[in-house]
Design goal:
With 247 residues, this protein is α/β, with parallel strands linked by helices. Helices cover 36% and strands 26% of the residues. The strands form 2 sheets. It has a 6-stranded mixed β-sheet, sandwiched between helices. Strands 2-1-4-5 form a 4-stranded antiparallel β-sheet, covered by helices on one side. The radius of gyration is 19 Å and the shape is globular. Bound molecules: adenosine-5'-diphosphate and magnesium ion. Keywords: ATP-binding, Nucleotide-binding, Transport.
């Protein structure tokens, strides 16, 4: 399977603190690749380096063979990278349908002149909108306003809007954080169902979820990648256990 995202010698320090300290990581296309690690390990910094929120002190990020190091966040969707749960990407006073429709419309580079045509002049967008809404389990809410959704449903809509960016790589930052147990299970199933069609890089604290849905797990500790492999290998790694126990 081909590598879609490659980080090489990625590093970022804040003053004297090396938050990320020379990380090499290769994400294979179509897989779910999780990054875990104890608090302060550098996970958020690592994600921010990939999504362009912050610049690396050194090292490179390559996406689909192109060096994208330092590309600003607003350019990411054009490259085919969507980041979910970073900032709200949902319009509360639009319906579920219109939120997804608008995101697809923007992604497909239709200009204002196109918009002045009748909406149903875009059967392709309409069809894709319905497909994405079905995919995240919100078909029964299509005509509801986004602000009327439950917390769990809002998260699903955020995923839907991210998918409407037609990403090849989806960056998920703790997608189940703050969700009730039932919504956590739904989100876990959704992420798993996206595997194969999308590539997903996931930060997640909840170990059981990571072990359930990941193809590959990378473990960060004090800015360094200390272990990488399939869940079964990570679960039994002494090095990983030591890192979590602070030894
Ligand atoms: P994690 O997400 O794994 O908990 P972070 O990436 O947030 O870890 O942080 C890694 C280290 O870098 C921590 O020691 C943190 O205090 C430090 N750090 C992160 N961001 C900044 C910043 N903007 N300024 C100074 N130190 C930072
Ligand atoms: Mg963090």
């Amino acid at each position: 399977m081909s590598v879609i995202l490659q980080c090489t010698g990625l590093a970022r320090h804040f003053g004297g603190v090396f938050a990320v300290n020379g990380v090499d990581l290769a994400v294979r296309e179509g897989t779910i690749h999780s990054v875990i690690g104890p608090n302060g390990a550098g996970k958020s910094t690592f994600f921010n380096l990939i999504s362009g929120e912050i610049l690396p002190s050194s090292g490179t990020v390559t996406f689909d063979g192109t060096d994208i190091t330092g590309t600003p966040p607003h350019r990411m969707p054009h490259l085919g990278i969507s980041r979910c749960f970073q900032r709200t990407n949902v319009f509360p006073d639009l319906t579920i349908h219109d939120n997804v429709w608008a995101a697809l419309f923007a992604r497909m580079n239709k200009g204002p002149a196109d918009y002045l045509k009748r909406r149903n002049a875009f059967p392709d967008i309409e069809e894709k909108t319905a497909q994405i809404i079905r995919e995240v389990g919100l078909a029964h809410k299509t005509t509801a306003l986004a602000r009327t959704l439950s917390h769990g449903q809002s998260r699903m809509l955020e995923v839907a809007v991210s998918l409407a960016g037609l990403p090849r790589l989806l960056l998920l930052d703790e997608p189940t954080q703050g969700l009730a147990p039932e919504a956590t299970v739904e989100m876990t199933h959704l992420i798993r169902s996206l595997a194969g069609r999308y590539t997903i890089l996931l930060i997640e604290h909840k170990m059981n979820i990571v072990m359930e849905i990941s193809d590959t797990v990378s473990v960060l500790s004090l800015g360094r990648m200390i272990e990488e492999g399939p869940p079964a290998q990570i679960r039994t790694s002494q090095r990983v256990q030591d890192a979590y126990l602070g030894r």
